[in-house]
User: Which sequence fits this backbone?
């Protein structure tokens, strides 16, 4: 490392995420650690009065002999933690999200590799003993020691825990005497199951998709495939192909704990070659998996959003399943990155392809496919040739007039029929988001913003309804303007209540309730799925988590108890999200030989999202939704950016927010600026939140003015500015 006798200096980025110190600081490299210093390693450095960890981002010759530099204290780990690829990816994320550079590096690494992770998460070791082949056989040994030696001689080598059962002091003595040799080896906390699933003979449609992908190794594909069309099988085939070329793969799934069936299929096909990164792993287990990946001991990584940063080399393909899912966008904390964008960035770096798959592609991705930016592929039919199940829409306005219950006659008789035939039922309770809005208890009417077409949010303190995009407000009506009903503010019901009601109607049925409460314990979700699969229950009742990726052959009825709640969420994507949710859950019915059926209960039977979901008609939905997006200047016609302004003093905040808006107006042309308006949740932990929403087509001028604004408020403790480009939700 010695370059011509010059003194070497390392440029270090320290682990404090604040704009004011988010730059490279120079340190001398003491000669004692010179050989361990490389770009990308973690080091400990003095920083003011503190001692901090940081990353070495550059190594250079020291030119200026005047400057007094401090010395690096030590190297934390010998491995290069940030590879060359991740180093430049971090800079890209910083540029596109305006986050601190250090936060962009931290987000890529497992917690164990971050400074201040509380207790240090270490590498776990196993200790092995072998016989020293040249030990002095004249040494006098006790019977216990002889027993140990015999045991080691028999097996060749023995784990420490087997020997200490005999006597730990005898083991130490034998090591001291040079009879036994001790060796520490890393021990991974997770043991992968190894069993193999035979691959299936692909259908012609599947074959075609696989060929297209592997014949064009440098593209982004959008794979539209209806539920049960065999997308997962296609992914595995593509991965297998790259495996045979010695290349690696990343598979992103929305929430890995919610897709145990899919992960199991991957594990059984690829065995020990796969690492599954999920939130159920302990920090230590995650760190072990990260090292296995880093060392090239696995070829396939499957995981949620952050698995996109897996330190694989030589990537052959990146697959993003359920690509429409908003879980691929990180909302908080910063950096607010989109994993699909990172997938595409990495695919350019590795010259490989990306496959974005979904039964209900996001409007953004579909629009790009239409423009030819992405290559479009489709699996329009179910693998087994079965039609998608017929869907019945039930108008709850009528049901309310008759019995005011939660269940329509259609749904009740459907359930009854299944129970008689010993078939199974899935019921979806579509839970609302956590903002509050007013709906009519009788007809389901909701108040919408005339400018933005989103549901108005109820603010109790002022008894007003407000649009949290543009700031529009009105007083709360005392009666429903549609039907005259005086009882407004129906806040919806929970799964527990529905379970109770269901028990009353079907006292002998076995009901499994699956929601946040019943699945929060580790492993519960998998257990429930297995139990339902084994027909230990007749009815699976749950929230959104029953809609995704489940494959039960005996389910012939899917019922949606309330399709409207997701329509009422104050978000311009509420139609898209509802369409996608209903399509997903409908796809759980009639997946094998027996015919399936779906019943959707709704107060908005005419709503296009519900009608097209019932007709399994993605393309008509897409066209209708695109018209609305164009009219109201929403994505994919315009980009959105949300500026959140928060702090403790609401009046001061609003004044500053106005100033920010005015300066944006002065600098930016052809940008629509909405607000400042109160956020959906205006006050949270005594922090008030306003926001300004930007709609634009060209981001060129936006970044420089944002940087100026951030710089201006950098040292102001009364105000915090957060910027979210292409937000998944605007809260
Ligand atoms: P998707 O991911 O599109 O919902 P899957 O890949 O899960 O579809 O396939 C649906 C079902 O069909 C699964 O049970 C799967 O094992 C089965 N399957 C997929 N491809 C084939 C095939 N070529 N031959 C037989 N069965 C298949
Ligand atoms: Zn509005």
Assistant:
């Amino acid at each position: 490392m010695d370059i011509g006798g010059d003194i070497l200096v390392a440029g270090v980025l320290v682990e404090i995420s604040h704009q004011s110190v988010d730059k490279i600081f120079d340190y001398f490299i003491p000669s004692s650690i010179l050989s361990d210093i490389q770009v990308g390693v973690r080091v400990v450095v003095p920083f003011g009065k503190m001692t901090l960890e940081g990353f070495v981002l550059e190594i250079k010759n020291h030119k200026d002999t005047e400057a007094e530099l401090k010395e690096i204290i030590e190297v934390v780990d010998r491995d290069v933690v940030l590879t060359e690829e991740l180093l430049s990816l971090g800079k890209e994320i910083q540029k596109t999200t305006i986050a601190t550079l250090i936060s962009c590096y931290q987000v890529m690494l497992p917690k164990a590799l971050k400074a201040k992770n509380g207790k240090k998460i270490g590498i776990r070791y196993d200790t092995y003993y072998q016989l020293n082949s040249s030990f002095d056989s004249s040494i006098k040994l006790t019977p216990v020691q002889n027993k140990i030696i015999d045991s080691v001689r028999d097996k060749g080598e023995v784990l420490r825990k087997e020997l200490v059962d005999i006597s730990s002091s005898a083991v130490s003595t034998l090591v001291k005497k040079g009879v036994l040799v001790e060796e520490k080896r890393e021990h991974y906390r997770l043991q992968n199951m190894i069993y193999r699933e035979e691959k299936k003979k692909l259908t012609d449609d599947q074959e075609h998709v696989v060929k297209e992908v592997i014949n064009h190794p440098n593209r982004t594909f959008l794979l539209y495939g209806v539920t049960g069309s065999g997308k997962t099988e296609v992914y595995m085939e593509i991965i297998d192909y790259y495996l045979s070329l010695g290349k690696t793969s990343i598979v992103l799934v929305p929430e890995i704990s919610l897709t145990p069936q899919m992960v199991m299929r991957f594990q059984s096909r690829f065995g020990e070659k796969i690492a599954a990164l999920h939130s159920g792993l302990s920090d230590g287990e995650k760190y072990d998996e990260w090292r296995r990946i880093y060392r090239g001991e696995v070829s396939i990584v499957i995981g949620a959003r952050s698995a996109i940063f897996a330190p694989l080399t030589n990537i052959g393909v990146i697959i993003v399943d359920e690509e429409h899912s908003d879980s691929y966008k990180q909302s908080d904390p910063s950096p607010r990155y989109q994993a699909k964008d990172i997938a595409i960035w990495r695919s350019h770096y590795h010259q490989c392809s990306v496959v974005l798959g979904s039964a209900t592609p996001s409007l953004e991705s579909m629009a790009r496919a239409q423009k030819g930016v992405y290559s479009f592929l489709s699996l329009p039919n179910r693998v087994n040739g079965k039609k998608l199940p017929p869907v019945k829409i039930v108008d709850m306005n009528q049901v309310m007039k008759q019995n005011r219950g939660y269940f329509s006659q259609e749904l009740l008789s459907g359930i009854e029929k299944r129970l008689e035939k010993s078939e199974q039922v899935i019921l979806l309770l579509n839970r609302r988001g956590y903002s509050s809005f007013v709906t009519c208890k009788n007809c389901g009417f909701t108040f919408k913003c005339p400018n933005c077409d989103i549901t108005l949010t109820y603010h109790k303190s002022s008894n007003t309804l407000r649009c949290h995009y543009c700031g529009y407000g009105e007083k709360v009506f005392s009666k429903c303007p549609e039907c005259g009903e005086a009882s407004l503010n129906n806040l919806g019901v929970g799964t527990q209540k529905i379970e109770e009601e269901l028990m009353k109607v079907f006292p002998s049925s076995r009901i499994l309730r699956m929601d946040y409460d019943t699945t929060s314990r580790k492993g519960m979700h998998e257990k429930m799925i297995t139990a339902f699969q084994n027909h230990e229950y007749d009815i699976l009742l749950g929230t959104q988590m029953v809609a995704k990726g489940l494959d039960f052959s005996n389910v012939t009825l899917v019922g949606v108890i309330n399709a409207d709640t997701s329509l009422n969420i104050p978000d311009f994507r509420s139609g898209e999200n509802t369409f996608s949710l209903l399509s997903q859950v409908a796809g759980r019915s009639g997946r094998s030989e027996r015919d399936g059926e779906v019943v959707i209960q709704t107060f908005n039977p005419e709503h296009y999202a519900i009608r097209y979901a019932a007709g399994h008609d993605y393309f008509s939905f897409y066209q209708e939704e695109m018209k609305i997006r164009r009219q109201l200047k929403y994505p994919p016609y315009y980009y959105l950016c949300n500026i959140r302004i928060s702090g403790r003093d609401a009046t001061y905040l609003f004044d500053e927010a106005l100033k920010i808006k005015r300066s944006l107006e002065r600098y930016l042309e052809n940008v629509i600026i909405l607000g400042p308006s109160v956020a959906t949740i205006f006050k949270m932990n005594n922090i008030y939140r306003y926001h300004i929403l930007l709609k634009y087509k060209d981001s060129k001028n936006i970044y420089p003015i944002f940087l100026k604004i951030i710089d201006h408020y950098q040292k102001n403790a009364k105000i915090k500015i957060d910027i979210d480009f292409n937000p998944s939700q605007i809260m």
User: Anything to note?
Assistant: Residues 650-667 form the longest helix (18 residues). The domain at 125-186 is CATH 1.10.10.10 (Arc Repressor Mutant, subunit A). Residues 200-203, 206, 225, 227-233, 383, 551 surround adenosine-5'-diphosphate (ligand 1) (CB under 6 Å). The CA atoms of residues 573 and 729 lie 9 Å apart.
